[in-house]
Amino acid sequence: MSIAAYVLNLYIKIQHIFKRRHHQRKVSVQELYIYPIKSCGEIRLSNSAKVTPIGFEHDRILQVVSRVDTKDSPLDPDWSFCTPREKRCEKLFHVQPKLIIDESNTTTTLELSSKHVDNSFKLRLEEVLSRFGSPVTMPMYCKTMGWASAMLEDCGYNVGKWLEDATGITGCRLVSIGKHYSRVVKVNPKQGDEVPMIHHEHAGVLSSSPPWTSLADEAPFLLTTRSSLEDLNKRLGKGKQVDMRRFRPNIVIDGLQPWEEDSLKRIRIGAVEFHVWQRCGRCTMTTIDRDTLERCGEPLSTLGNFRERENGQRNFGMHLIPARPWELKQARVFVGDEVEILEYDEERRAEWIRIFGKSS
Questions:
Q1: Cβ atoms within 10 A of the Cβ of 117, count?
Q2: Would you say the pTM of this structure is higher than 0.85?
Q3: Residue 325: CB partners within 8 Å, gap ≥ 6?
């Protein structure tokens, strides 16, 4: 058999495998999460989440910042995001948010609690929003993930003091997305995944722009799969297994084979179409136990054994971008929604078949 014929037969076989698998299985949403304050605790949603162009509603709309001296000039202090990657900030993981929506569905209160303080703190999000740009709270330039600066709004002294008591981060403040905020997705150049531009039409004129995102590290949404976590835990072994909190996803799906999410390019969840964009390279945050705050090399070390690419990235999960954000309006993703695979990334799919794929 010639090389060309062999390649053709292999391609037809792969196509047949994927089509058969797609028709025989159901891929669906199993879990939904939001993280109102970046790097703090999660809220698991029991029913659904509203989709916005920059992420789920209320997801990563606030972050804790502290004032540090810049390297360029010790006399020119700047506000920078706080992350549990730094041991001094690890108690952020124990700040647990809770959303309380009144019966009229017009007022949303964010209640914060922590096992490190006796009292909780309540913050009415509508009050914070109404203060944007007012003399009550001054806009602040703050460094975000990737060290780009964004204009954010200070939420006031009281919540800042509560967070300082709960986390031990001296002089920290809580800041929020406001009318001055704008931030595009963060490209990880090591991943080599091209940003899907968002195309717009207004008054008959076509234009395009990069997608926007919340205060999330890189993109508006993060998708993970149960099967990949199960496979990772088998490799970790008894006593070293981790739960999905280590990876902080927004959407957890079931029905794919382990690591098959790598191969996706476009999907539809309910009525919302997403670009499956950039692979999520993992860092030391995954090695921190969310309950005890103890640190170890896992699961990062094991991921390095079989998930590390030539670029050094150890991936778990895929970043999503809404394909047509102007059509979202009141769009929601529900637990139980079917995930329809619209298109595969041929290069990533071939890589997955080569490393993880099975013929059955």
A1: 17
A2: yes
A3: 52, 53, 198, 211, 212
**Residues recorded for the chain:** 360
**pLDDT tens-digit profile of 71-121?**
554 434 478 999 999 999 999 999 999 999 887 777 899 999 999 999 999
With a CB cutoff of 8 Å and minimum separation 6, the contacts of 308 are: 314
* Gyration radius of the chain over CA positions: 22
Listed in sequence order, the residues at least 6 apart from 275 whose beta carbon sits closer than 8 Å to its beta carbon are 196, 265, 266, 320, 321, 322, 323
Return the structure tokens found at 6: 């062999």
The type of residue at 146 is G
| H helical segments located in the chain | 3-24, 125-130, 157-167, 226-236, 300-306, 346-355
Residue entry with tokens 């997705």? 185
Compute CA distances 284 → 84, 85, 201, 226, 289, whole Å: 9, 6, 42, 21, 11
The letter for the amino acid at 46 is: S
CB 49 within 8 A of CB 32: yes
**Pick from 110, 175, 171, 173: nearest CA to 139:** 175
The first and second tokens of residue 70, run together, are 């810049």
Q: What is the pLDDT of residues 235-291, one digit of tens each?
A: 999 999 999 999 999 999 999 999 999 999 999 999 999 999 999 999 999 999 999
Q: Is the Cα torsion angle 318, 319, 321, 322 positive or negative in sign? A: positive
> CA torsion, points 204, 206, 209, 211, in degrees to nearest 10?
70
